[in-house]
Amino acid sequence: MSTPIISRGSAVAERRKLQFKDNWTEFTRTRSGLVGAVLLLIVIMLSVITPILVPAETLDVTKITAAQNEPPTAAHLLGTDPAGRDVLGMLLWGSRISLLVGFAATAVSMIIGTVVGMAAGHFTGMVQAVIMRIIDFFLVIPGLVLAIVLSSVLSRGVWTIIIAIGVTSWAGTARVVRSQTLTIEARPYIERARALGAGDGHILGRHVLPAVLPIVLANTTLTVGSAVISESTLSFLGLGDPGTVSWGSMLKTALDTGAATAGYWWYVIPPGLAIVAVVLCFTLVGRALEAVFNPTLRAR
Q1: CA 285 to CA 33: how far, in whole Å?
Q2: Count of CB atoms within 10 A of residue 44's CB?
Q3: Average pLDDT for residues 126-145, to the nearest whole number?
């Protein structure tokens, strides 16, 4: 009796391995997505080893010996800021906060959006109507405005920004997951599962969730880029944690100290370019994943 089960399990594992190989092959055909993935890996690796490359004490204003607003030199490749801190070191430390907020806020958004979207597509009647009205509310109200309100009401900090972005940016994912859930539940094997007595939890967990995960994964990479922009915007508006360095807070400091008008371009351009580059990389990877998981886009 155990042999068929083992064979069936091996067949499923082999099928998943072949599917992963096919998806990876299709992904590598998209040069832009591959370049974006490589650049993202480099940025993530640099952010992880930042404490080794640039110890935190080197940015302590009480221990700095460099002059303020120094232009780029061999000692400071991107110059110094108005406090005399190394701009390159701040850029690396800022990547940690920006990426942390981007990934964490996206995780919150994806979890909420996936659960709500599957529920909106699976249930009917009053339950579906209530869920759809909630989704419509979050779609109509600008997410950034809600995030600003939450960040203003709650105590300032990194986790406040994560929560504010996460709980205000899930509606788009919920819409996508709902449409995919409706497509899946119209298939014959779902009807067979219901005829055999499968409950809501079994259908959602065993059939719907595995089928919507690829779409969620592709949408996740796009959402991370939006979360990085939102974090930079909130920090630029002064709603971030004043005790941490992020790309948005660097731009705010540059604005407050008049770095742009004074000609200190080395403190203004690098954080702006970093935001653009990282968001562009996430967008390229997300579009490539959409082409992998969506046959219609792949055909184009």
Answers
A1: 4
A2: 15
A3: 86
The secondary structure of 59-106 as a DSSP string is G-TTS--SPTTPPP-SSSTT-B-TTS-BHHHHHHHHHHHHHHHHHHHH
Number of Cβ atoms within 10 Å of the Cβ of 210: 10
The C-alpha R_g of the chain, in whole angstroms, comes to: 23
Tokens, residue 22: 């096919």
Q: What is the rounded CA–CA span in Å between residue 197 and residue 207?
A: 14
pTM confidence score: 0.82
Lookup: tokens for 49: 């080893």
* Residues β-bridged to residue 86: 80
What pLDDT digit, counting tens, does each position of 148-180 carry? 888 788 777 888 888 888 888 888 889 889 988
Q: Which structure tokens are listed for 142?
A: 């600008």
Q: What are phi and psi of 39, to 5 degrees?
A: -65, -40
* 265 exposure class (CB count in 10 Å sphere: 0-12, 13-18, 19+): middle
Dihedral Cα 90, 95, 100, 105, nearest 10 deg: 110
Rounded-to-integer distance, Cα 70 and Cα 59, Å: 15
Sequence length of the chain is 300
Identify any residues that bridge with 296 across adjacent strands, giving them in sequence order: none
Q: Which two tokens stand for residue 177?
A: 């997951």
* Lowest mean pLDDT across 37-46, 82-91, 139-148, 263-272: 139-148
Q: d(Cα 34, Cα 67) in Å, to the nearest integer? A: 41
3-state SS record for 254-289: HHHCCHHHHCCHHHHHHHHHHHHHHHHHHHHHHHHH
Token digits of residue 173: 């994912």
